Amino acid sequence: MRKPLAIMAASAIALSSLILAPAANAGETITGSGSSYAAVMINECRSAYTEHSVTYNPTGSGTGKTQFANGTTNFGASDSLYSSGAPKNFTYVPVIAGPIAIAYNVPELKALRLDGPTLSKIFLGEVTKWNDKAIADLNKGVKLPNETINVVYRKDSSGTSNNFSNWMKQVVGSPWKVNDVWTTAAGKTFGTAGDKSQGVKNTMQTLPYSIGYFDLADTLTTNFGIAAIKNGAGQYVKATVAASAKFLAAQSMKSNGAVLFDYNKKVAGGYSVTLVAYGMAPTKNGTAKADAVRGFFDYMLNTCAPAKAAAKGYVAFTGKFLSNANKLVATID
């Protein structure tokens, strides 16, 4: 009888260990929505996070802000701040940054330089051919195709559009306005619309001789060229993590986490078409779900992003920016 008893005892111990062992994602389930620019990074972090279960829907920044304000989600993510309709008792948390890549689908064009005025004319439909003199003057010795430029822009309410239009307004001026809606920012409708960052990428893949703007992360899965854009120091710089980080470091951050971009600032080697994605979280909720959001944001800033951001095409915060972001995380409740 000793063997059966031993087996029963071993089984009981094994069963007790199964009952006591904490399961992965055994905590709260929290939901978020918003920025499609930051989606690759957020999904990378949430899939590796084990304290709580996190779901994220890359609806675009505009919808993310609305859903968070309405209480539909536990947290939001946006590349632009509220201009109206902000909820009470919440905080912004800058969670990730990175370049807006100006991508082009022109296989025979291996390198491309563009400045602000020329880029503006392309997106306004005033420069319509790839071999236009305005482009040729910036690309001496480069054989440019005699093909029509197909502009692709964001259809949805987009923080990426907000930041790119802000860059246009600062660098070029009229007629550009800062707005989440591209056609409002440009003051006209020109080109083909793509839904969210991934929609711009997918549209460009089916549209030869196209140009568009979206996150560097999504360009890594394409064969698109990336234009070198003239910065405030007069240099033509391609969208890279290092060049974006250099430009970001020269900017300032307010106590509420908002980064104030001076896109004309002379930063040698800096890529100026850079943005910040913000998390949005409650500060007087007093619930376990709010605690879970605080835990996830802390994990993104201090564990996930430092380890994984650069490989995914993003810039992780460091130094005084990270310190300020962590102070804001601490206010989530």
UniProtKB/TrEMBL annotation:
Residues annotated as domain PBP: 24-301
CDD domains found in the cross-reference section: PBP2_PstS
Entry-linked SUPFAM superfamilies: Periplasmic binding protein-like II
Pfam annotation, one family: PBP_like_2
GO cellular component assignments: ATP-binding cassette (ABC) transporter complex
A Gene Ontology BP annotation from the UniProt entry: phosphate ion transmembrane transport
Signal peptide start-end: 1-26
Highest taxon in the source lineage: Bacteria
GO MF annotation terms: phosphate ion binding
Family annotation (InterPro entries): ABC_phos-bd_PstS, PBP_domain, Phosphate-bind_PstS
Keywords attached to this entry: Phosphate transport, Signal, Transport
Family that this chain belongs to: Belongs to the PstS family.
Name this protein carries in UniProt: Phosphate-binding protein
Annotated source species: Aquiluna borgnonia
